[in-house]
Design a protein that fits this description.
Blueprint (H helix, E strand, L loop, with lengths): L4 H4 L12 H13 L4 E5 L6 H13 L7 E5 L6 H12 L10 E6 L6 H13 L4 E7 L7 H4 L2 E5 L5 H14 L3 E2 L1 H11 L3 H14 L2 E2 L1 H8 L4 H12 L3 H14 L4 H14 L4 H19 L4 H19 L1
Parallel strand pairs: 1-4, 1-5, 2-3, 3-4, 6-7
Helix pairs in contact: 2-3, 4-5, 7-9, 8-9, 8-10, 9-10, 11-12, 11-13, 11-15, 12-15, 13-14, 14-15
């Protein structure tokens, strides 16, 4: 079975992690002192939270790091039982290393119920001598205050373009694949700061074509080109509603896109248009309203037509 590139090229040390330099420096200080508090990693998906936890464990515990590192996903079991059984049983055992503690990495900790978090707080407090916790979540606001106050908080940011491109070039070179600059730009655009998503897109694109170009990227992701969506919006704003509607039909039928896919891309394109800010505000407001209607179950074709109609009228009034 072909290796999954996300795991194959996961950084093995803190020095290999890209785009989170400030966080890496703080984690290195824990390695230097062989001591650490409970940690809370918060931030969007694919920004290095799990990778940082594993790299930290590798550098703290050495080759036998797996014996001192236990990973759980809170979204699998959200209730209080996971704290009373799996977590508590592991936390109370002695550390099998010379550092003096082991690590429980609890991924998606914001999925835990309030009762489970309350039980976890007590466990963290009681077994802190033999066990340290690293909690990972997308939204730190969903973690109860008593837990937050017991942790050093690390806030991960979406990775910048250069960090993603650098890593993708490295992986493509290792795999013997050629990738051009337009393909890199397309992957960065689609991944939106998510390194895991970017690497998965790179692997899917490589399966389609030996030489990875822009077309391979969009074919692999099943999304429309940014230029096509931009042309759709500009055509509607110019007052040509029927042509814009034909473009929309082509995107929906030929590319097989859903209404939600289209509206998310339209939302991003609006910010890049060279139009008055007041018009951007109006278009974003209407896009949000249409997206809400679609999520609530309204017919996506009718709603997207209504959005283009609004763009056409707004363009005549403001341009």
């Amino acid at each position: 079975m072909e290796d999954v590139w996300v795991e194959k090229y996961r950084p093995k040390s803190l020095d290999e992690i890209v785009g989170q330099e400030e966080i890496v420096e703080r984690l290195k200080s824990y390695v230097a002192t062989k001591s650490m508090p409970h940690l809370l990693f918060a931030g969007p998906a694919g920004t290095g939270k799990t990778t940082s936890a594993i790299a930290l464990a590798r550098e703290l515990f050495g080759d036998n790091w797996r014996m001192s590192f236990h990973e759980l996903n809170a979204s699998d079991e959200r209730g209080i039982n996971i704290v009373r059984t799996k977590i508590k049983e592991y936390a109370r055992t002695a550390a099998p290393n010379d550092v003096g503690f082991k690590i429980i990495f609890l991924d998606e900790a914001d999925a835990l119920t309030p009762d489970a978090q309350a039980a976890l707080r007590r466990t963290m407090e009681r077994y802190s001598r033999t066990c340290r916790f690293i909690l990972s979540c997308n939204y730190s606001s969903k973690i109860i205050e008593p837990i937050q106050s017991r942790c050093a908080v690390f806030r991960f940011k979406p990775l910048d373009e250069e960090a993603i491109k650098k890593r993708l070039k490295f992986i493509a070179e290792k795999e013997g694949k050629k990738i051009d600059d337009k393909a890199l730009d397309a992957i960065v655009y689609v991944s939106f700061g998510d390194m895991r998503k970017a690497i998965n897109i790179l692997q899917m694109s490589a399966a389609i074509s030996e030489e990875i170009d822009e077309n391979a990227v969009y074919k692999a992701t099943g999304l429309a080109k940014r230029e096509d969506v931009e042309e759709l919006v500009k055509t509607a704003l110019s007052g040509d509603f029927l042509s814009a509607r034909n473009m929309l039909q082509k995107l929906l039928v030929e590319f097989g896109l859903s209404g939600e896919d289209i509206i998310k891309q339209i939302h991003r394109v609006i910010y890049e248009l060279n139009i008055p800010d007041r018009l951007k505000v109006e278009l974003i407001d209407k896009t949000g309203e249409i997206e809400f209607r679609m999520v609530e179950g309204a017919n996506e074709r009718i709603q997207l037509d209504a959005l283009l109609a609004h763009f056409t009228l707004a363009g005549k009034e403001n341009l």
